Amino acid sequence: MTAQPSSGKHTSSVHQLKVQLEGMKPPVWRRIVVPSDVSLGSLHDVIQVAFGWQDMHLHAFEDPSGGRYAPPDDFGVPAFDEAKAALADVLPRTGDRMDYTYDFGDDWLHRITVEEVRPAGQGEGEFALCTGGRRAMPAAEDLGGVWGLAELLQRYETGERPRPTLIRHGGEESVEYDGLHDEVLAGLYKEDFDPAAFGAAGVTRALAEVRLRRAGHSERSARGVPTGMYLCGCGDLHPLPGDVGDRSAEEESLSDLFDAADMRLPAVRLPVESELARAVRETPVFMAAVRLGQWCGGGRELTPKGLLRPKLARQAVEDAELWRIDPEEWGDPKERVARLATIRSAGDMELVDLPWEWALNCGFVEVEGNRAYVGDEVPEEGDDAALLAAWQRAVAGAAVELSLTVPVLEGPLGESTSLRALIEEAPPVVFLMLLAAYGLPGGEWLDVGDYLTGGLEGLPEGPAQQLVSALLAEQYDDTVGTLELFGAAEREDDRALADGALAVFLDGGGRDPLQVGRFRLTPLGRSGLGTLLAGAGIPAPVIGSLAGADARELLAALPSYPSEVDAAAELAGWLAGRSAADAAVQVVDACTGTEPVDALRRLEAPRVLAAVLEADEAGRAKAVLRKAAVAQVTGCSHAAASMLRRIGEPADGQAAWGLEWMLVDGALPFARRGEQALRERLLAGPRPRPLDQVAEHADDLWRAGYPHAGEVLGALADAAKPVDKALAKRLRKAAFKAGSAR
After folding, report:
1. How far apart are CA 587 and CA 609, in angstroms?
2. Distances from the Cα of 581 to the Cαs of 420, 552, 572, 618, in angstroms?
3. Which strands make up the sheet holding 371-374, listed edge to edge?
4. For residue 500, how many other CB atoms are within 10 A of its CB?
5. pLDDT digits (tens, 9 = 90+) for 671-711
6. What Å distances lie between residue 30 and 643, 658, 670, CA to CA?
7. 381-416: pLDDT as tens digits
8. What is the pLDDT of residues 494-548, one digit of tens each?
């Protein structure tokens, strides 16, 4: 089978689809209008919402030729990535069909038929629309497929009532049903379900919450929360940050944000791991989620909506000590039992609802079918490193989810394309606010109102700007409120203004929604945000973190310290753990290699070796350098020889060209980045600048025998020409000599 190539562009056409649940009599179907270039992965989200599914099981699309489309890695058989397949490429014409199967146990088969392909009309193309359909769908997860659903509906239509079991506990009474079918049947009577009723407008409102994705964006469905993912406010799942080797799209976007803003974060000081882990244990909701995950070890039965059954939820409150979330309110055992007995759904138990959501998002609980099991990500409470790492992953996900996603507008406001365009013009103010708080000295507060107001510069003044400011205030409140629950932030503000910022604006209250006080990150919060930044490849140095690192890691990390004072403190901590001779050996050994990344490490070697020599009272480090300078090891010998020449004790022989070798070497990484980057490097810093050093030794640079000398000297000539034509001519001649000497 072959996949059709995606156009990669947003089309101006829409597909009108009829999606029918096969095997149902009377038939159940929905008429859906979606953009033609929507991905099949996004169409999956649309179908889930249109039929009331909860995305608790696997799914796949299959075209008439047998081509299968599914999320990557969901199957052991070949399947195209549904996120990269455009609807228009798979079903290009009116009358085309394909199948969509959900839950390969119950086998809910949906036949998708293209009724029309046409130019997008008014209000079409941005969101999925439901324009017709037949029959309502009850909560049908895990009922046994269309046969089980048909049997349930027949029982309902004949008026059969399930017989509940009366449970008495602590003087209170509750009811439970014998099996899932009876529980669902009782729910139909409770909601006065009408199987013949159908409202397209209600489905369209629900579909407005589904963010459509175009083919080519490799994103997973938005309705489940598998291990290692978090549920974003936009409705999509994203990988939790932390694995630098497998960068997510969200992490790449953060890296782009930093590049665009040319930001550098200061080095911070954090408590040791054991102190941070102790702070995690004092975070009630997170620890409740951990205990809840461990409590699911043997498997726990769920309702069709994916919640714990009421009896089990009450048991979890006791066994997993969920009441510790609010001991003042729920600490009395007798009163707690009595209050819980009156609650009929785990979704209404505040002690269960939030930790259950966190346990799912963090991977502490995994759902298979209608049972919940302990997840692979749940840490042991006594393991400091594992507990802290799990917390950091979770808070990093929450920070991205909330601080980069402006609250979704509901009702008429949400349909305003001009307002959405205005919001998109606003910078990611709340995330930038977190970064500003990250860089503040410990204990200092960030004035939120001043910061958010500054972020609105450039937007047109008037009601539109005021509305954006209200949305930012709500976004700030959501973000910092969640971080407070994680123990990652503290705030002092007018919660009435923050919580109701949008309502204040819409009511014309005249109050400034940005007068929301101030906040700060806790040390634990800094560690979590640092994890997020590190996962995105953004330097976020922590003083003391390199004390046990090897020299290669030290040399690579030192440039990320924007302050010389902080870099010196980090270096002092590294030197304190080893003798001067050992430090010299490790640094010289780390200077080997001829690639640009090796050259970047060698650029940092002089400052480290200078500190080593300063601390070397016995002269053993200098002896290491003399031995290395004549060892003829590329990179190592030259770094050692260059250092000896700097201190006025040059080595003998060929390695005496170490300084010239290092000058060419230091230009290599910047030459590979382009002429402008190399010119900026030459002109950087106080005198003597790199340009001055190159000019002093230009006629001899070719003699150093550098492997990439011809390439680098030619690039230096091009970069120097606008600044010093005479120097450029000397470098061009040196480049020719380097090529002739090979």
Report:
1. 7
2. 62, 16, 15, 9
3. 300-301, 371-374, 365-368
4. 20
5. 888 888 888 888 887 778 889 989 999 998 888 888 888 88
6. 75, 75, 58
7. 889 999 999 998 888 878 877 777 776 555 555 566
8. 544 444 555 544 444 444 544 567 889 999 999 888 888 877 767 778 888 888 8
Q: Which two tokens stand for residue 340?
A: 């819980």
Residue 352 CB coordination number (10 Å): 27
The two tokens of residue 629 are 């300078």
- What's the DSSP call for residue 483? H
What is the three-class DSSP state of 186? helix
CA distance linking residue 194 with residue 52, whole number of Å: 15
Residue pointed to by tokens 């040196």: 734
In angstroms, the Cα distances linking 323 to 223, 326, 331, 375, 553 are 28, 6, 6, 22, 45
The stretch 69-84 carries a mean pLDDT of: 77
C-alpha span between 678 and 670 (Å, rounded): 5
Q: Which two tokens stand for residue 477?
A: 């409140």
CA 506 to mean position of chain CA atoms: 32
Type of residue found at 5: P
The better pLDDT of the pair 344, 447 is held by: 447
| pLDDT digit string, tens, across residues 343-363 | 777 777 888 888 998 898 888
CA 631 to chain centre: 47
Phi (first) and psi of residue 175, to 5 degrees: -120, 145
Question: How many other C-beta atoms are found inside a 10 Å radius of the C-beta of residue 457?
Answer: 8
Round to whole Å and give the CA distance between 407 and 302: 31
Q: What stretch of H or E contains 17? A: strand 13-21
CA distance 691 to 703: 18
Place of tokens 């139909």: 188
Which two three-digit tokens encode residue 90? 């798979």
CA angle 242, 246, 248 (to 5 degrees): 80
d(CA 398, CA 396): 5
Angle (nearest 5°) at CA 169 between 168 and 171:
85
290, 283 contact by CB (below 8 A): no
Cα angle for residues 438, 443, 449 (degrees, 5° grid): 65
Helix (H, G, I), strand (E, B) or coil at 703: helix
> Is 508 buried (19+), middle (13-18) or exposed (0-12) by CB count in 10 A?
exposed
Amino acid at position 290, single letter: V
